[in-house]
Amino acid sequence: MSIYTGNYTFWYESSQLALKQRSDQNKKLEEKVKELQEFIQRFSANASKSKQATSRKKALDKIDISEIKASSRKYPAILFNNLGREAGDQILQVEGLSKTLNGEVLFKDVNFMVNKGDKIAILSQNSLATTAFYNILTDRDKDYKGEFKFGVTISTADIPNDNSEYFEGKDENLVDWLREYSGTDADEQFVRSFLGRMLFSGDEVLKNVKVLSGGEKMRCMFSRMMLQLANLLMFDEPTNHLDLESITALNNGMKDFKGTILFTSRDHALTETVATRIIELTPKGSIDRMMTYDDYINSEDVAKLRAEMYS
After folding, report:
1. Which GO-annotated molecular functions does the record name (predicted)?
2. Residue 158: which residues within 8 A CB-CB, separation 6 or more?
3. Closest CA relative to residue 265, chosen from 289, 233, 223
């Protein structure tokens, strides 16, 4: 057993490095064994070389090639890069977007243009504001002021904060549930492949969606998102109900994605490693900065502006 001091990201990166070092070491040992075996085979019957062959035989007996055991941890394959259509230069334009809920201004006069390939962390001190923002962009909420427009080449997929609408009243297995979102008359094997990426295998794909846990529902939602082949992804607190392995896989999938992302997450490491731009929604407008999350929260200029926006 190896004990690591640090957070989960540190453990994951350290364990991967240790595995690579071990693999490299065993590769060198295997090459050494092969070299010794070839020498012994060639010269063991040669009187002038027999002493050297015997010496190498003893060296060979001392080499212990460790078997690299696969980790018992299972990482899902959250892969978004199989884009259905290449996005054009017009991604998303937001103008004067405002939302009030029960008399409370969640955000007001939000204006920005999304650039191709942006990975934008959407922030707010009020989580209702960020959820309302995604609900507007996904047409779940029609009660707002202002407007937004996606480019004609843009296809979207999202992970909402509340996914109950996708499972309530459903009485079907996972394959039939996911087939509804395939957009084609997909065969069972095709649909199973997307469930398999999220570690649903064998008879598990025949489980009724009515009995799924919160974590299993989230994995189904990721299967759905991957199946949609969208070029703009939106995530509202996507790490809810996920285990550490799934969070790591999601983090890597978001970093590797070649399209555009809007996301909100309370996972600091994910936000810091994915976001290339920060947009914060406030009751007095928005703050828009091309910087990492750590740079944003540590900026004195941003801190002063935030204090004004929320006062």
Report:
1. ATP binding; ATP hydrolysis activity
2. 134, 137, 138, 225, 233, 234, 235, 236
3. 233
Positive or negative, the CA dihedral 260, 264, 270, 276 is positive
| CA triple 191-195-199, angle to 5 deg | 155
**In 3D, which of 26, 16, 268, 246 has the Cα closest to residue 4?**
16
Cβ neighbours of residue 26 closer than 8 Å, sequence gap 6 or more = 65, 66, 68
Q: Which residues contact 85 (CB under 8 A, 6 or more apart)?
A: 153, 155, 229, 231
Residue-wise pLDDT tens digits, 195-227: 999 889 888 899 999 999 999 999 999 999 999
Q: What is the pTM of this model?
A: 0.77
With CA atoms as reference, report the closest residue to 306 among 124, 176, 149, 150.
124
Residue 267: which of 293, 291, 287 has the closest Cα?
293
Which of 138, 167, 139, 134 minimizes the C-alpha distance to 236? 134
The structure tokens listed for 73 are: 């941890």
Location of structure tokens 């809810």? 240
Q: At what angle do helices 244-256 and 8-43 cross, to 10 degrees?
A: 80
**Cross-strand pairs, 277:** 120
197-201: long-range contacts, CB 8 A cutoff, minimum separation 24 = 197/76, 197/77, 197/78, 197/79, 197/223, 197/226, 198/76, 198/77, 198/78, 198/222, 198/223, 199/74, 199/76, 200/174
Chain segment 136-191, per-residue pLDDT in tens: 999 999 999 999 999 999 999 999 999 999 999 999 999 999 998 886 567 888 88
d(CA 307, CA 35) in angstroms, rounded, equals: 69
Cβ neighbours of residue 63 closer than 8 Å, sequence gap 6 or more: 29, 32, 33, 36
Given the structure tokens 């047409």, which residue do they identify?
139
Range list of β-strands (E), the chain = 92-101, 104-114, 119-123, 145-150, 156-159, 232-236, 260-264, 277-282, 285-289
Helix (H, G, I), strand (E, B) or coil at 149: strand
